[in-house]
Design brief:
Oligomer: single chain
Strand order of the largest sheet: 2-1-3-4
Order of helices and strands: EHHHEHEHEHHEHHEHEHEHHH
Structural class: alpha/beta
Radius of gyration: 21 Å
Strand content: 5-15%
Number of strands: 8
Shape: globular
Length: 387
Amino acid sequence: MATVVPPVTQSSTSRNGPTAMVFMNMGGPQTLPEVGPFLSRLFADADLIPLGRLQNYLGPLISRRRTPKIQDQYASIGGGSPIRKWSEYQLNEMCKILDQRCPESAPHKSYLAFRYADPLTEEMYQKLLDDGFGKQGRAVAFTQYPQYSCSTTGSSLNELWKWRTRLEGQKPEGGGVKWSVIDRWPVHPGLIEAFAQNIEAQLVTYPEEVRKDVVLLFSAHSLPMSVVNRGDTYPAEVAATVHAVMTRLNFSNPYRLCWQSQVGPSAWLGAQTSDTVLAYVRKGHKDLILIPIAFTSDHIETLFELDQEVIHEAHKEGGTGVKRAESLNGSATFIGALADVAEGHLRSGETCSRQMGIRCQGCKSERCLEQKRFFMNTERDVQEVIR
């Protein structure tokens, strides 16, 4: 006999709860054997790495060739990615705060949806249904990419929409999960404060007489220029974050924005972080702080690419003052910011930002169009649930 899944019910103290809080991120392999499947999913994603009509051929080929090298990199940082550890910690701490601040939507239940590693989006969605949220339960998809890109948040939302359609259908029995989305938050004051605090903590490690001359290098993951030229908002939103942080710091130091993690021979957004650091060191700017401005926790791009490659090469060139600001990780200020963003969203009755409703100028993706239509058209239902 099939097991009947009980619907999510409202308690006497929680008018609209429980609420599923779903953190979306790229994820990372927990062990070395997981590196291959992780890369296979990553290079199969045309939203992130567009390879054209040969995606299905080139993606697996590139991932197989890169697997041994990337396994060595993960081995050098302890054998796996810390993204899941930090994501679970940040999410659980945020939900505790929300339970106190928003009793009307409590309890706030934690779910992770990673794009390329466990727990994958389909695993998260099935768990939501198993937990009874398919009977008009409230769920919030909260991107952990503060700055929106079609390659990151857009890809995660496409995947969420795909599995919603596969697992619930066009007209779900029982009403289906009632979704809303926090799709970007690049200049939230709490996020800016968390970045600024980590920068200030690193600045004080320099002698006072040179402190004001330390160059702040904000580093974000790059994008293929084909994505940028299509109209992706990511470069502008990253720049907005940088400007907000420097405003909070009262423009105390010279600064630049650069881009890391280019893959393959095609044109990517620059200047590249590694080239920038070496160029400045060779010009005599030997005191630099690298700031990972588009990441919410440590992972391979910070612990290996920045710490073991970029900074190591800089030290070899005489740039002994090149350091990195700590990632957000367990910052109480950052976790408070997550709670602020989520609380504002829960109380707003909105399903997504106004920005999400407009497509990139050069977008031709039917999947993107259908995904946006779905999330935009759920607004009436979400407002009914909240109010």
